[in-house]
Please model this.
Amino acid sequence: MIYRKDAYYKHFKSVFAKYLKDKANKFKNICFPHFSKNNFSALSYKYTGNPKEADNLKFLLFKIKEILTYGKDEKIKNRQYNNELLIRYIEKNEALTKHKEAYKDLIDFFNNSVEEELIIFYNNKIEYENLKNDVKCKYFDKYFISETGISLLERNGFIRILRMKN
Model:
């Protein structure tokens, strides 16, 4: 494995993107168990594969529902388009939910910013431990710290590096 800062950003964002997708599906399946076969898809590579710090700073302001649908294409009906259809269904069908409190949490989650959700991610004990024990992250982080003085594995490190650079 060879260290490259852009590769570290992409890997970190893919770990975070999986957390977002899994969280969205968990809430959706509690609220709409009859809809459990139609899950949220992975986030677009247009998000996870973009290492540009200026773009990632802008992404911090996106709502989760915007990042889940980022890169959607109605013509080819890609995964992000499916995510948009799911979000629309959920937002229009509160009356059909099986769990009112989880529904409220799901809607709040959709409307959180990426930055707010990154903070929640870093403060989630299980997710944070998984992040700190990720082999690729640990490897990349050693080089990243010597290059920048910041660790993406310390709380809110990704947010701090973006704010510092721009």
